[in-house]
Design goal:
With 222 residues, the protein is an alpha/beta fold. The protein is built from seven helices and eleven strands. Helix 1 packs across helix 2, helix 2 packs across helix 4 and helix 3 packs across helix 4. The chain is globular.
């Protein structure tokens, strides 16, 4: 039997169309016709948080900036761990924020959003890293399907020299940049090294079909 797909809500925002759909018991987010993520798994989104925290094991209450609220897996996983300090989430789509505050996705993120360590910042991540002065122990970014597959053209600059320099500046010395991607990118690893990140590596999560999801990691020198 084919699983029923239903449009829960469709909105036009400043960056185009964003849609929340249900597929059986799960939900999925589509932006400008591009599938972003769904609630069926979440292993790689949790890995994004875990590898950053593991690399910061010697720090007390490290702060993290999560780029992209998505379906809420990364935020919920971070808030479930008492070792994190400040948890800031940048999300530019008000529709996605609303789906978490009082919509179907609240079942995933409700407790995490209510956590006193959590703050939701309704702004564009690319703008935020280039204009904000706050520094974090970790940047965990998941706003596209990867450096080579962006949701909107403007996001592409995040993965180039200017955007990586801004990410470098938003990190405390010894801080961690972790970037989720639907496929490995050797070119992005090289770009991270060229931007001054050290110990650049890639963690993989195998998926049912196709190439593995990955998290690209790099350290700002101490």
């Amino acid at each position: 039997m084919q699983t029923e797909v239903r449009t829960v809500e469709r909105r036009e925002g400043p960056y185009g169309e964003v849609v929340l759909r249900s597929r059986g018991e799960h939900y999925e987010i589509i932006a400008n016709g591009c599938f972003l993520m769904d609630t069926s798994d979440g292993r790689s989104e949790r890995l994004l948080i875990d590898v950053a925290l593991d690399a910061l094991a010697d720090r007390s209450g490290p702060s993290v900036l999560i780029g992209g609220l998505g379906v809420g897996f990364s935020l919920a996983h971070a808030a479930a761990d008492p070792r994190w300090g400040r948890i800031a989430v940048v999300e530019r789509e008000q529709a996605i924020i609303d789906w978490h505050l009082d919509g179907p996705l609240a079942r995933i993120s409700g407790a995490a959003i209510a956590d006193p360590r959590t703050v939701i910042l309704p702004t564009d991540l690319v703008v935020f890293v280039q204009t904000n002065d706050e520094r974090f122990d970790a940047l965990c970014l998941d706003i596209d399907n990867g450096p080579d597959w962006t949701v909107t053209d403007g996001n592409g600059s995040l993965y180039g020299p200017e955007g990586l320099a801004a990410c470098h500046d938003r990190l405390k010395p010894g801080g961690i940049l972790a970037v989720w991607s639907a496929q490995p990118s050797e070119a992005f690893e090289a770009a991270m090294r060229n931007a001054g990140f050290e110990h650049v590596r890639t963690e993989e999560i195998m998926v049912a079909r196709g190439v593995p999801d990955v998290v690209h990691l790099g350290v700002r020198p101490a």
